[in-house]
Amino acid sequence: MIDRSGVFFMLAPxxxxxxxxxxxxxxxxxxWTGRWPAHNALFHVQGCSLRVLALCxxxxxTLCSCGLDTIYTLSPPTEVHTPTYIADDDxxxxxxxxxxxxxxxxxxxxxxxxxxxxxxxxxxxSVMANADAAISSRNSSTDYSAAASYMIDTLGYQRxxxxxxxxxxxxxxxxxxRYVYIRLSDVTYxxxxxxxxxxxxxxxxxxxxxxxxxxSTSLMYxxxxxxxxxxxxxxxxxxxxxxDREKDRVPESGDSDVNYSxxxxxxxxxxxxxxxxxxxxxxxxxxSYSQVLHLGSVSIKEGESKHN
Length: 308
Prior knowledge:
Elements: E1 2-3, H1 7-27, E2 29-33, E3 42-46, H2 50-65, E4 71-72, E5 78-81, E6 95-98, E7 111-122, H3 125-137, H4 146-154, E8 158-159, E9 161-162, E10 171-172, E11 179-183, E12 187-190, E13 195-198, E14 201-205, E15 220-221, E16 224-225, E17 228-229, E18 258-259, E19 269-281, E20 287-289, E21 293-301
Parallel strand pairs: 7-18
Antiparallel strand pairs: 1-4, 2-3, 5-6, 6-11, 7-8, 7-10, 7-19, 9-17, 11-14, 12-13, 15-16, 19-20, 19-21
């Protein structure tokens, strides 16, 4: 959506200046003196300064020819299931939200690209709560991009990578709002079926009641179902200290997607905080963001994905 509400405030001084120039022109009376040839001709302007008149006219022409800034506004996604790190029930450790592809649209030189996800890993819940409060305080209707810019540029929230390929933004615009289901890690292994009861993955569906992974609606890269991986390496999963010690490595100090604290809330427990935001760009590829949607946070215990 294009917001033209500020245009009228910009037109007001321009119109006033044009009216003033018109008034000056009406007060001025031009008289012809001299003789031809033209280089001997002289205009006398009575009642005003010729220089003042020229400056007024030039100012009006300049203002009329300059472009007015266009502000693009996007509607944010909406929450459906927002988990909290306090909950220790593995059944509840998933995220669901609805994209806002129906309300948002491309218009003129502006393209609505879709919905992007950002995350950060914490080991201290108080630090995470302070970050949430700081982001929320910037989630303003007067500057739609302020919260997203602060979250990304100042707090260092990262885009996810994928187990295969790359999709940016993660949920491409189709023109129809959809529901997105996310589970970051595998938990509760069933030895009888040799499968996890709660399997990591990301699904895109029209079903608002989705609460578990559904392979038929999995996000695909080409013909390959994908799941979310860490920004520092697409081979790194969120199964911290899981079956594969290399791929399931534990977060460390210095990782760009980690806020590492010397004072941990609980040893061996990490907290992953998620946000979603609608994104678009103009003809100059300048990115615009909607207000951000806090998707919630989940706790992930080291080693909980092991099964032998």
